[in-house]
Design goal:
Elements: E1 3-9, H1 13-23, E2 27-28, E3 37-38, E4 43-49, H2 50-59, E5 64-68, H3 69-75, E6 80-85, E7 95-102, E8 117-120, H4 123-133, E9 138-141, E10 156-161, H5 165-169, E11 172-181, E12 183-187, H6 195-213, E13 217-225, H7 229-233, E14 243-246, E15 252-260, H8 261-274, E16 277-283
Parallel strand pairs: 1-4, 1-5, 8-9, 8-10
Antiparallel strand pairs: 2-3, 5-12, 6-12, 7-10, 7-11, 13-15, 13-16, 14-15
């Protein structure tokens, strides 16, 4: 039995490989290869553009895949969304499709684009947006370098942005956001009716979610006098409660827990003041609730 998976080639490729590595799967691909090696004999993968993955999953050519919610909407794909995986090429945040115009454009709202021309790769998303706004405008598919097409070729663009830096570099400003998107782990509905595939998909989803949950957390160990346990414990939020074990030295305990990384840095002086010693922080690969 094998599960076929579509992995996004391009800007998300390395971030996806790293996420799978933390989840426990090593994926490697040589230069121009579209067939990566996965250290799990039950999974076979193919690297294709994220724009296409949802269509192949819907058709059953692939059992599962990772693609953006935006491309599921753009393709109007009938697939099962197994997990919402918030990661991207520049960090852990959603991306946005935005309507943008030159800084000196008179366009201030979508309605100002009536009768104008808009270039985008997300043609269907844009057409649905304009229809909802009651705006009649020409929407054309852009093969790339969309930012450079305004104002010489088109009046506005609908473009994907994560930080907005590329738009600002091209002297563009955002008029409105059409849709926010995160990466989704999706499955073919027929594949989910197969007991073996359903179990394998659930395993992968659990491990991917665990890897993402660990991104903003750290493991923490410390030595604490027994008399200070209550004070230290009150400072330590945990998934359940801190793990406490007795040390060989009389009157001392080892305390271990998982914390938000940003919280830990402010807790260190408080933990020291409460009596903790030998405080150690270590990275995590996965956190499975």
């Amino acid at each position: 039995m094998r599960l076929s998976i579509g992995l996004p080639k391009g800007s998300l490729q390395e971030a996806t490989f790293e996420l799978f590595r933390k989840a426990g799967f090593t994926i490697t691909a040589s230069g121009r290869s579209y067939v990566p090696r996965i250290d799990d004999d039950e999974i076979e993968g193919i690297l294709i553009r994220a724009q296409e993955i949802s269509r192949y999953v819907e058709q059953g050519i692939l059992d599962v895949g990772l693609t953006g919610r935006d491309w599921i909407v753009e393709n109007d794909s009938d697939v099962e969304e197994i997990a919402d995986l918030i990661y991207g090429k520049q960090g852990f945040r959603p991306v946005r499709w935005v309507l943008a115009v030159p800084n000196d454009s008179p366009v201030r709202r979508p309605e100002d684009l009536a009768g104008k021309r808009i270039a985008t790769e997300a043609v269907n998303i844009t057409k649905r947006y304009l229809k909802a706004k009651g705006v009649s405008a020409a929407v054309e598919f852009s093969w790339g370098a969309t930012e450079v097409k305004v104002p010489q070729l088109v009046d506005a663009i609908v473009e994907l942005t994560e930080t907005g830096s590329s738009l600002r570099a091209h002297n563009l400003r955002v008029v409105d956001t059409l849709i926010e998107s995160t990466t989704r782990f999706i499955a073919n509905r027929a594949a989910l009716r197969d007991p073996w595939k359903k179990a394998k998909i659930a395993q992968i989803a659990m491990l991917l979610n665990g890897a993402l949950a660990a991104e903003a957390k750290v493991g923490v160990k410390m030595n604490v006098p027994e008399k200070s346990l209550a004070a230290v414990g009150a400072l330590l939020p945990a998934l359940r409660r801190p793990t406490v074990s007795r040390l060989s030295e009389e009157g001392w305990c080892a305390v271990e827990t998982v914390l938000d990384e940003k919280l830990f840095r402010s807790l260190v002086p408080k933990l020291k003041a409460a009596g903790a010693e030998g405080i150690i922080e270590y990275p995590l690969n996965k956190v499975i609730p």
